[in-house]
Design a protein that fits this description.
The protein has a six-stranded mixed sheet with strand order 1-2-3-4-5-6, with helices on one face. It has 285 residues and is an alpha+beta fold. Strand 1 and strand 2 form a beta hairpin. It is elongated, with a radius of gyration of 31 Å. The longest helix has 20 residues. It contains eight helices and six strands, in the order αααααααβββββαβ. Helix 2 packs across helix 7 and helix 6 crosses helix 7. The N and C termini lie far apart (106 Å). It is 32% helix and 18% strand.
């Protein structure tokens, strides 16, 4: 009887691990996408685009994207937001008259942002946890708008949609913006973002200052419209305990006024900041 030599003995059948198993065909330009399958008809091609590689026109024509109702509604809300539409825009001045002292302006700005409705869900969570009073929650616009929207008020529904769109923009761009009248005739814009995002080297960025590694940072951009005298743009950057303020002022009386008050401003900031303060003023035409 003939027997196989040991080196010719067939190996025992063993199951393959997933990494060794034969993969199914996902896509191949050499395959016929309309190949006939047994029983008639055509096989539906399995299309899978690779990350960073656009699909060909023939392949893209066969790809269908389906969005849920919620996704379509969110996309519609974002599509309605125009440039600067994410800003909080109060319908009336936040102060009845001016000029006002700094503390009054700061408090009014804070309340305008806090009760704008952008942080309604967070405030509800805090109220539920017992860390926020119900009276404060009742100042949110959603408390007033929801009953009106349920009563088929189109204006209330539109207002709620605008607030939701602002919330989506805030999450997408990671910034909170405010624009309106501080007091009648005095317009200002304020934009705060949690991280400093440098876009090129400005004059004030070329000056080195102490930076704490791993320190939390934020940037606030402020624009103040002075009518025919021009506009003042202020960039405030906080990095840990350090503060950097860069002011862009129009050449002329405004520049002279700001320069003469810079020493007093620096002294006032020093009472609030524990770290280093860098204050620069740039004149613009």
């Amino acid at each position: 009887m003939d027997t196989a030599t040991p080196e010719r003995q067939p190996a025992a059948v063993k199951p393959l691990v997933p990494a060794q198993a034969i993969s199914r065909v996902r896509s191949d330009s050499r395959l016929n996408a309309q190949a006939t399958v047994p029983g008639g008809g055509h096989e539906k091609p399995f299309l899978e685009g690779k990350a960073g590689v656009p699909l060909s026109s023939s392949t893209a024509s066969q790809v269908r994207i389906q969005l849920s109702d919620v996704a379509r509604q969110l996309s519609d809300l974002l599509g309605r937001q125009q440039n600067n539409a994410e800003a909080i825009r109060p319908s009336a001045p936040i102060l009845p008259a001016g000029p006002a002292d700094v503390s009054s302006v700061a408090l009014s700005l804070r309340q305008s942002v806090e009760f704008s409705g952008l942080f309604y869900e967070a405030h509800v969570a805090r109220w539920f946890a017992g860390t926020r009073e119900k009276q404060l929650l009742e100042r949110e616009p959603q408390i007033r708008l929801w009953p009106q929207a349920l009563a088929e008020s189109e204006e209330a529904r539109e207002s709620l949609q605008n607030i939701t769109g602002q919330q989506l923009n805030m999450l997408a761009h990671q910034r909170v913006c405010w624009a309106g009248q501080v007091w009648p005739g005095f317009f200002a814009e304020l934009c705060i973002q949690p991280k400093v995002t440098a876009q090129g080297e400005d004059t004030h960025r070329q000056t080195r200052w102490t930076e704490e590694e791993g320190a939390e940072s934020s940037q606030t951009d402020i624009s103040i419209q002075l009518g025919p005298r021009g506009r003042i743009d202020v960039t405030v950057e906080v990095l840990g305990n350090n503060l950097r303020v860069h002011m862009r002022v129009p050449v002329g009386p405004v520049s002279a006024l700001v320069s003469s008050a810079s020493a007093d401003l620096h002294q006032r900031l020093a009472t609030k900041v524990d770290g280093e303060i860098l204050l620069t003023i740039e004149e613009v035409e």
